[in-house]
Amino acid sequence: MAEADYDLVIRGGTIADGTGGDLVDGDIAIAAGRIAAIGQVSGSGREEIDARGRIVTPGFIDVHTHYDGQCIWAEELSPSSSHGVTTAVMGNCGVGFAPCRRADHDMLINVMEGVEDIPGIVMTEGLDWDWETFPEYLDKVAAGKRDIDVAAYLPHSPLRVYAMGGRGAAREVATDNDLAMMRQLTADAMRAGAIGFATSRLSIHKTADGQAIPTFDTDIAELEAITSGMRDAGAGTFQVVLDAFVGWDKEYKVIERVIAASGRPATFTLASGNDAPPRWRRVLEMLEATNAAGGVANAQVMPRPIGLIAGLELTVHPFVLCPSWAKIAHLSIPEQVAAMRDPDLRAALLTEDFAPGHPFNELARNWRWLFPLDDPPNYAPPASMSMAGQAAARGCTPQEVAYDRLLATEGRGLFLAALGNYENATLDSAHEMLRHPYCVPGLGDGGAHYGAICDASYSTYLLTQFVQQEGPLQLGLAEAVHMLSAKAARAVGFTDRGTLHVGGRADLNVIDLDGLRLHLPEVVRDLPAGGRRLHQRATGYEATIVAGEVIRRFDQSTGARPGQLVRGAGYRAA
C-alpha cells in the first residue's frame, strides 16, 4: 500500500479562512500539525474527511474563560471544545490560583466560589496545589493533557494577596514596596508565558461569604504600576471587568491610564442594559478615540443576553431565598415538587420576600427579564414570554407563573434570567456591537459559574442565530467566522492562529452549517467530589482539529489530547 502524502486531507469543503474574505471551495491538506496545502490537493491523506456541503473554518478562539481549575482536573475543556473552540484564554476577571502560598489556599477558594460559582469542595478535591509562583502554575498546566490549547492571564486577586498578605485581601492601599513587588512578579509572569494581566472592578463580584473581592475599587495607580511590569517584559494584554454601575465616563479612565502607563493593549467587558439609555454607544466612541490616538483597546461582547440560568437543581431559582424554602432545600427535586404542591407552602412561597443574599439571586426575581428556557433553547424570546408578560396575560402574579412552571415540569424547568445585552427585548444592540471594528465575541465564562451560567456555547449561537436566520440581524458567514477566529485572536495578542493559510497551525472545524443545532443546557455530575455543572451540547460539528489531530468527530470526543499551553509573546525559555 502506497504511503500517504499527508496526515489528513479535508476534501471539497467551503472554506471560510478567518480573514473575512470570500468563501472558496477546495481541499486542505495537513502534515505535522501544519497546513501543507489549500486548493485542489491531489495527494492522499492517511486520514481523509469528506467536507462536501460543509464549511471549513479555523478553530475558534474563546477569549474569556475560567478553566484555571478545570484544566488541572480534567482533560476535556467542555463546553468550549464542544463548540468549535481550539484555544481558550483563562485567568479572566483577575481570579485564579497562582501565585499562592499554602496559607492562602482557602482565601482563593473563597474568592473563586463567590465570583465564579465553583463549589469549594470541587477545588479542594480537584487541585493538588503543587505550585506557589505563577511560573510554577504555568509549568503545571503545560505538563497536563487536554483536548484544546489554553493560555493564561496573571490574575490580580492572588497576585495582590501574595504580595500583601492579609492587607491585600482586606483591600488596603498598596505601599510603594507592594507595588514594586507586584510589578516585578508581573514582569516575571510575562517572561514565563502569561498572555497578560487581568483584574475586576465589578461591585457584584463577591467572595463566597459576601465580601468585596481583593481587587474591587483598587486605586488606578496600582494598576498602572502592575501593568508597567508588562511594559518591562515588552508583552501582555490588560484584561478588566469595569464597574459600569458607577458610570462609563469614570471607569473608562482606567483603560486610558493603563494604556498610557504600560503601552500595552487592553480588553474589557461591554454589554447593553435591557431598558436603560444606550450608554454602550458612548463606550464605542471612547474606544474609537483610544485606537485613533495610537492605543489598542477592544471590548468583549456576548452575542446573546448576559445573565443566568435558574432552576431547582441549580444555584439560583425564583424561590431560593424565600424563608420557607429552607424547610425543603435539603430534599431531592421530586420531594421538593411534592412539598410545593401543599397549599400552605405554596401560599407562603408566593407571598414571601427574598432574604438577603448574593446579588445574583435577585436576577431570578426580575420578572420582566425572566423567561422560560426549553428545548430548543430560545435566547431571544419576546417580552410577552417573560414571567411578568405571562402574568399580565393570565391576570395573576409573576410568582404564580414561575411556580406553576416548576410544578408542570416536575421541577426540571429552566429559566433564562437576562441581566443585560437584551435592550428592549431584542438583540439589536448585540448585533451592532459585534460588528464594530473594536469589539469581539466573548464572555462565555467556560469553567466557571457551574450552577448558573452556560454561555460557552456562544460560538454555536452566533452561527445559528446570526448566520442561519435571515433578517436585518443576519451576518455573512465569512464575517461571523472572522469574529470567532482571527478577530478574537488578535484582540488577545495571538498572531499564530485564527486564519487558514499554508504553513499555519492546523486548528480547524468542519461544520454542517445547515444541520447545526444548539441543545438545552443539562446538568452533569463529572466534577471532582461528584460536583454538578451545566453543560450544553451541539449537533453539527463534524470534526474539530487541534494541531492536526481530530479531537472531536460528529460531536463526540475522539480521545485525542494534543492541547498545549500557549505561552505569550514575552516568554523566555529557561
From TrEMBL:
GO annotations of cellular component type: cytosol
Source organism, top-level taxon: Bacteria
Span of domain Amidohydrolase: 47-551
SUPFAM superfamilies from the UniProt entry: Composite domain of metallo-dependent hydrolases, Metallo-dependent hydrolases
Keyword line: Hydrolase
Protein name: Amidohydrolase family protein
Keyword Hydrolase attached: yes
Gene Ontology terms for molecular function: hydrolase activity, acting on carbon-nitrogen (but not peptide) bonds, in cyclic amides
